[in-house]
Amino acid sequence: MSEADSHRPAGVPEPPPGSLPGSPPGSLPGPAPRAWWHPRRLLRGRVRPAAAAALAGVLLGVAGTAWQTGTGPFRDDRKCWGALDDGDLEGYFRDPAEVVAHETSVQYRSLDGYSGLCRLSTRRGAVTVNVHRLDLRYDGFGRWGDEYLAPRLVPMGGGLLGMASDTRAWLALPEGCVGRPSLAQGPTVVDIDTGWTVQNSEVDEKERAVLTRMVVKLVNRILDQEGCSGTVVDPADRLPAADDGLTSERPGAVCRVKGLTLPAQHKDGNGTNGDKSGKGGKSSENGKSGGGDGEAAPRVWITPGDGPVRTCDRTRLGYTELRLMTVSDPRLAALFERSRDEYGTRLTSSRGRGSLSDRDGVFLARCQTGDVAFVARTLTLTSSQPVRALFPRYVEAEAARAGCGTLRVTAGTSGGN
Length: 417
Hints:
The longest helix is centred in the N-terminal third of the chain and has 23 residues, at 47-69. 20% of the residues lie in helices and 23% in strands. The strands form two sheets. It has an eight-stranded antiparallel beta sheet with strand order 8-9-10-14-13-12-11-15. Strands 1-2-3-7-6-5-4 form a seven-stranded antiparallel beta sheet, with helices on one face. It has helices spanning 3-6, 39-42, 47-69, 86-89, 143-148, 175-178, 205-225, 330-333, 387-399; strands at residues 100-109, 113-122, 125-133, 154-155, 162-164, 168-172, 188-193, 299-302, 309-316, 319-327, 345-349, 352-356, 360-367, 370-378, 410-411. The chain is α+β, with helices and mostly antiparallel strands. It starts with a helix and ends in a 6-residue tail after the last strand. This is DUF3558 domain-containing protein.
């Protein structure tokens, strides 16, 4: 018997185990006394709000980390340096969720300027975005000039140096942000390449608008990253219609340049480019001449509007035989500076000079708006286009329209290339 039991009066029953002293007999057992380390004892007074604040701080820290790293609910699915979201891509890709982006950051190097690459890939194809300075060594007469100055592209207008089609788009970064290129440099551009172009197909204006908006967003993203003020306004809704290639040349107007004719020995099957028997108007759908010797008549594609370049492609059976270009923007005309003296026959004038071969010709003229480049190219190996006889007269005929006034071009003796 314990000491407590020894003082209990006789006849008083022992309280049930677990009941509190002073509670009626038979009542339910009360809670056991809390240990000193119980959480509620530890959180009494000022300790409890402090712990709650600490927990809230931990949650905010985790959320902040997720936001900075783009994980969890803060995941950022924008692609190409954060410029393009799924809404920008769904106009071109069936399922933007399937698009995988592989990109290199846009960086500036003293020798090459700004550069960066982003490739958007799916199982059905890819779209390539390239940020680069146009290279005077090859971008005029190279692949870039062939594809991005083609008549399928239309000028963006509104003071923008850029062009777009349903398969290509490019836009120069504003000089106020990246600086004006020197005489030995071309402009810095963002261009989009979606793959193979079928020249004879009709331009899909919806896809052209998608590419235009994409390239504008890419340029604005770069401007924002570089801390430049202002944004480029989207011109997609005001782009002119592309040439459908159905309007033929009128007599005495090769590439629809008034007064420009082919030599008699090079007249086309329908007679619309040299003699006066041809009928101007619409070409037949299959490209066959309506009244000549049965040879397929050329289709003519010309850049619409008053843009930085006017390109004319004379095609036959889907192949471009001759390209004549007037590059009126001095920043693009500089791309042909290196080729000006490359060919064997020298071309001279009081306000410019150039050179000429059987297949190609370049002439740079000093005009009121700056340098203007006139270019002739034979793009097929089997073509027998009369570049040597046609090009000097093309320069003279186009000079007035390009703001160069009257030019008289003299061809020197042939030699060299």
